[in-house]
């Protein structure tokens, strides 16, 4: 399908300064295979000595055509692809997709399913923040932190495995509820984890907060001002690090987030350190939410009883002809979704994760578009990187917490 | 839910001839492509829709004409409401004025729409492909672009399919 052709320099001329054309600055390629780009991100850098004059991100190395593929699958099958987008937030990807399908079909979600969804979504946030903390520490030289973070992350992955049989690509949240109820050991495992975690967060902080090397590498680096955060539409910890008090869990609550008491941590400095502190506080807030959700978790069904959309339980199939017909119809043809288009968004660990879902009335989505937070955040790179050293660039990439699967889709 | 954005809806409908549509509590304003930027400017400056959330497109080929709809998602940071703008475009080489002058983050979203649907944005500062390679032919998310698959080989047609299978070039 494609022919390999040489890059026409004239196409890239508008991206670099006049000085590059005169040979005063150097163009350097960073990535796509680079340990500090958190995946396959390529940055074209224009350098004056060691100072970044221009930074041009080049993405698409992990493009898998998920949106196109989802158009050819039924709603249930398409969901499996969503896990693979942001592989640090699979539960969040499932959740936003299911919320969209539920909104289109006007499906109800039982209270127990809502509570479990919140617990799992917050555990995923911790999971994502832990990996971010470990790898961004690694990027600026805090080696041992990575191992500690992985140790706690393993506990979260064990909980996911206990529920769904999978550590990462769970597809546990389904339209209308959950795949099945959580096992009896679930509550104990989560309680053990939230008991342990506050001490562990203090441990991480004792390694970093007062560390002069860490302070020097992060304070005043990659500053995003309040005005720019608004103008560029930043969301998530990046916006909150710049003083924008915005969190979709508070502003447009979904899945009963309005009944939980939690704060939105914000900082005004807008630098790498502010984003670090915001994420550390967010981990504590997540623990608070998990504790409340566990205390409030009601007993009851975990799947909607609407048989036109939700397959009947296995036990009914052997005794009820109608259940068998529904099961067969739902797993072959799928369910027909009313015609229309909607946009739903949740607060993922990285910011606003939205899905634009359009149905033409058939069993397959007509158009699915993921508005991914990494894609939006990576746009800020040229703005944040200007005037910093290459070594600081690594800290900036780490602080905007990109997942390339999320960016390229 | 939509009361707080009602003044904005009325004004845009009146001034730009938009058509409002509500579905599941979400409001969409249908506009002509030429008026999209002016309407977005009014929404941003007068009604506080200061954050561009997303730009995407939908292809209705072959059943509808005009075939493309460009979908713009805006968010109001004070009343916390979403508003969607839609503009219908026709033709194989459709084009639309850019929103980058109003919202700087429209840059990448518009590049993605160009890459995936082949819709040009006039006046865009960096009109390159973003996700597909620079020398890619075609626009993958169009409905007339094939999904692609691998033919299954059986014993009776193994060699026949092997002949037309793509192989890595030496």
N-end to C-end Cα span of chain B: 61 Å
* CATH fold assignment of chain B: Beta Polymerase, domain 2
Strand order of the largest sheet of chain B: 1-2-5-4-3
Tell me the major beta sheet of chain B: 5 strands, mixed
CATH-level-2 architecture of the largest domain in chain A: Orthogonal Bundle
How many domain regions of chain B? 1
Q: For the residues shown, what is the average pLDDT of chain A? A: 88
What portion of the residues of chain A fall into strands of 2 or more residues?
5-15%
N-to-C order of helices and strands of chain B: HEEHEEEEHEH
Shape annotation of chain A: globular
General form of chain B:
elongated
Number of strands of chain B: 7
Could you tell me the CATH topology label of the largest domain in chain A: Cytochrome-c3 Hydrogenase, chain B
Structural class of chain A: mainly alpha
The largest beta-sheet of chain A arranges its strands as 1-2-3
Structural class per helix/strand content of chain B? alpha/beta
Count the DSSP helices of chain B.
4
- Give the CATH class of the largest domain in chain A: Mainly Alpha
Describe this structure in words.
The complex is a heterodimer of chains A (409) and B (170). Chain A is built from 19 helices and 8 strands. Chain A has 409 residues and is mainly alpha-helical. Chain A has 2 domains: 2-58, no CATH class; 66-304 and 337-371, Cytochrome-c3 Hydrogenase, chain B. In chain A, the strands form 3 sheets. A 3-stranded antiparallel β-sheet of chain A has the order 1-2-3. A 3-stranded antiparallel β-sheet of chain A has the order 6-7-8. In chain A, helix 6 (111-139) packs antiparallel against helix 18 (390-400) and helix 8 (185-208) runs antiparallel to helix 13. The longest helix of chain A has 29 residues, at 111-139. Chain A is globular. With 170 residues, chain B is α/β, with parallel strands linked by helices. Chain B has one domain: Beta Polymerase, domain 2 (2-Layer Sandwich), CATH 3.30.460.80. Helices cover 25% and strands 26% of the residues of chain B. Chain B has 4 helices and 7 strands. Chain B has helices at 6-16, 36-47, 106-117, 158-164; strands at residues 19-23, 26-31, 51-59, 68-76, 81-89, 95-97, 120-122. In chain B, the strands form 2 sheets. Chain B has a 5-stranded mixed β-sheet with strand order 1-2-5-4-3. In chain B, strands 6-7 form a two-stranded parallel ribbon. In chain B, helix 1 (6-16) packs antiparallel against helix 2. The longest helix of chain B is centred in the first third of the chain and has 12 residues, at 36-47.
């Amino acid at each position: 399908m494609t022919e390999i052709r040489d890059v026409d320099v004239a196409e890239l001329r508008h991206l670099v300064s006049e000085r590059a054309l005169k040979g005063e600055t150097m163009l350097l390629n960073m990535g796509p295979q680079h340990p500090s780009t958190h995946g396959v991100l390529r940055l074209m850098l224009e350098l004056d000595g060691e100072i970044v004059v221009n930074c041009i991100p080049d993405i698409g190395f992990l493009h898998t055509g998920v949106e196109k593929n989802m158009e050819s699958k039924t709603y249930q099958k398409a969901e499996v692809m969503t896990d693979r987008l942001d592989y640090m937030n699979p539960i969040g990807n499932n959740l936003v997709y299911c919320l969209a399908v539920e909104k289109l079909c006007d499906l109800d979600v039982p209270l127990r399913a809502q509570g479990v969804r919140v617990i799992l979504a917050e555990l995923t946030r911790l999971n994502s923040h832990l990996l971010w903390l470990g790898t961004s520490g690694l990027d600026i030289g805090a080696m041992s932190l990575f191992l500690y973070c992985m140790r706690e992350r393993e506990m979260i992955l064990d909980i996911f495995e206990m529920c769904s049989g999978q550590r990462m690509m769970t597809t546990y949240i389904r339209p209308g509820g959950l795949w099945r109820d959580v096992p009896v050991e679930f509550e104990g495992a989560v309680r053990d984890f939230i008991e342990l975690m506050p001490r562990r967060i203090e441990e991480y902080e004792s390694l970093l907060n007062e560390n002069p090397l860490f302070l020097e590498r992060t304070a005043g680096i990659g500053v995003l001002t309040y005005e720019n955060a608004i103008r560029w539409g930043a969301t998530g910890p990046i916006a909150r690090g710049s003083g924008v008090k915005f969190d979709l869990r508070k502003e447009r609550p979904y899945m009963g987030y309005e009944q939980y008491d939690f704060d939105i941590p914000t900082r005004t400095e807008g630098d790498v350190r502010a984003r670090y502190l915001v994420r550390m506080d967010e981990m504590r807030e997540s623990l608070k939410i998990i504790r409340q959700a566990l205390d409030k978790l009601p007993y009851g069904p975990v799947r909607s009883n609407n048989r036109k959309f939700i397959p009947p339980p296995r036990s009914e199939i052997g005794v009820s002809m109608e259940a068998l017909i529904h099961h067969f119809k739902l797993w072959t043809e799928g369910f027909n979704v009313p015609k229309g288009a909607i946009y739903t968004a949740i607060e993922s660990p990285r910011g606003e994760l939205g899905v634009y879902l359009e149905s033409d009335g058939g069993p397959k989505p007509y158009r699915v578009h993921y508005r991914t937070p990494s894609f939006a955040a990576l746009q800020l790179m040229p703005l944040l990187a200007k005037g910093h050293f290459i070594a600081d660039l690594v800290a900036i990439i780490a602080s905007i917490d990109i997942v390339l699967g999320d960016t390229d889709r | 839910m939509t009361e707080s954005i009602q003044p904005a809806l009325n004004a845009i409908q009146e001034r730009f001839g938009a058509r409002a549509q509500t579905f599941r509590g979400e409001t969409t304003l249908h506009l002509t492509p030429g008026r999209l930027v002016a309407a977005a400017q009014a929404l941003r400056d007068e009604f506080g829709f200061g954050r561009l959330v997303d730009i995407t497109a939908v292809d209705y080929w072959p059943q509808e004409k005009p075939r493309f709809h460009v979908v713009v998602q805006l968010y109001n940071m004070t009343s916390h409401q979403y508003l969607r703008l839609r503009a219908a475009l026709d033709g194989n080489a459709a084009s639309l004025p850019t929103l980058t002058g109003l919202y700087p983050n429209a840059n990448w979203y518009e590049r993605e729409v160009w890459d995936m649907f082949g819709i040009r944005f006039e006046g865009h500062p960096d009109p390159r492909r973003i996700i597909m390679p620079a020398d890619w032919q075609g626009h993958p998310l169009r409905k007339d672009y094939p999904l692609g698959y691998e033919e299954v080989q059986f014993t009776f047609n193994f060699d026949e399919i092997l002949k037309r299978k793509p192989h890595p070039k030496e």
